[in-house]
Write a structure and sequence with these properties.
This protein is of the alpha/beta class. The chain has twelve helices and twelve strands.
Amino acid sequence: MHKKFSTILAVLAVTAGLSAGCGSNAPQQSSTQQTAKSASQTAYPVTVKDTTGTDVTLQSEPQRIVSLLPSDTEILFALGLGNKIVGVSKWADYPAEAKTKPIVGDMKVDAEKVVAQKPDLVIGGVSANGQDLEALRKMGLTVYAIEPKTIAEVEQAIKEIGNLTNSAEKARELIASMEKKVNDIKIKTKDLTDDKRPRVYVEVSPAPDIYTAGKGTFMDEMIELAGGKNIFSDVSGWKKVDAEQIVAKNPQVIISTHGVTADVLKDLQGRSGWQDIPGVKDKKVIAVDTNLVSRPGPRIVDGLELFAKAIHPELFQ
């Protein structure tokens, strides 16, 4: 499960003043420039409260960072910190450079490998890495834990990681670019009446153990933002469901996030009792890139765009 769920401007330049011997006409730093420089740089020591309520303090700018989830790795690379990453999860594969980094675990974190990298900051997820993070804290490492469940929380995590790593300006630009894409989608779906918002079923894990996204997950939010109605918004979190429940809820659009292959689509379309589901009859069964829609990192807005195109192709050519 965690493998599936289981993540750009430079700092403003300031004009330097000339030496005292240059006279009163020498250009001076304006207060606006000084304020901009101050706002874009982290003043250390810095303390940020993480998702577990723990105060995380860094005495100086981190130079060696271990990332325990692919989504966190994507955040760090997007902030221009790839050269400081010294350890990643086995599943970290974006950008390509992530695959060249030392692996410190997969579903289970190898604490010895993490310690061997001598990190001054470790970033991980509460659900995926909870016990491992606590163990690493007890070993004296500085650990920042996150668990974003909405796009806004992904953006907040980016902001806080930017603050911890002296990358606040890049974090602001990254968030702005994400918000622009979200707002562009909202504009296209804002006038949809209720009857124009189709019932959507999202499958995040295939049979025999079928899992879907319920209320309180970023996929549920993405369905709503993309102009649809999640047929399982009456349950919370990532839930195991059965085929009969899905048929009873009669989805008009079916989205698979567990593979983009002909076999996946053939399985969904050919399941017993599914032939009369509107989504199957109308050939609205779509498979999307799991990494784009399952990782709560910068590319989650690209995943939102995939959902929007699947649910309302007429609005998103």
